[in-house]
From TrEMBL:
<protein>
    <submittedName>
        <fullName>Outer membrane autotransporter barrel domain protein</fullName>
    </submittedName>
</protein>
């Protein structure tokens, strides 16, 4: 993941950080389960 360009890193950060900051436990659980 660290090798990916800034764009991908930004997207991942927005998804993970956004879910954590927004307290999206359900969303995080769903995305984490898929991975």
């Amino acid at each position: 993941m660290n090798v990916m360009p800034g764009g991908a890193l930004r997207v991942a950060k927005t998804t993970i950080g956004g879910n954590l900051e927004n307290g999206g436990t359900v969303q995080m659980n769903s995305e984490g389960g898929n991975r």
